[in-house]
Design goal:
This protein has about 130 residues and is mostly helical. It has 7 helices and no strands. The longest helix has 27 residues. The chain is flat, with a radius of gyration of 22 Å. The chain starts with a helix and ends with a helix.
Length: about 130
């Protein structure tokens, strides 16, 4: 499915058929992903490893697509903000990322991550307020 739909999508000029080929390609990719998950867990479909692997893969691919798509906007936005504000945002991202260790019952790692992120956000807020006063 993946090879034929990919080849037909490349060689076709008709937009409607290209969308059909994209859907077939996606279904084929899903079947391949399912079989990779099966191979990783030696036949145990309910394995935690399969769940963690595919959630991580989906998150990584989504973030990569967003980064590629909005690269220029992101670059412009990041060049315009001040150091204290950057620190606040990085702290919030780290605090929100603590949900991942909590999701897998790593309470100590999740707590350290959340506390570190909140601390960084508070430090960034103090820096940002000092920069505004000056």
């Amino acid at each position: 499915m993946v090879v034929v739909a990919g080849w037909m999508g490349i060689s076709s000029d008709h937009p409607t058929w290209r969308r059909v080929y994209a859907v077939v390609f996606g279904f084929g990719g899903g079947l391949i992903g399912d079989e990779v998950g099966l191979l990783l867990t030696f036949g145990n479909y309910q394995s935690q490893l399969t769940y963690a692997f595919f959630i991580g893969l989906i998150c990584f691919v989504t973030l990569a697509i967003l980064l590629v798509r909005f690269r220029a906007d992101l670059k412009q936005d990041l060049s315009e903000i001040e150091r204290g504000e950057v620190t606040v945002h990085v702290g919030l991202v780290i605090a929100c990322a603590s949900a991942l260790p909590f999701a897998f019952d790593f309470l100590l790692a999740g707590s350290v991550c959340a506390l570190g992120g909140i601390t960084l956000a508070v430090v960034g807020t103090v820096l940002h307020r000092r920069q505004k006063r000056v």
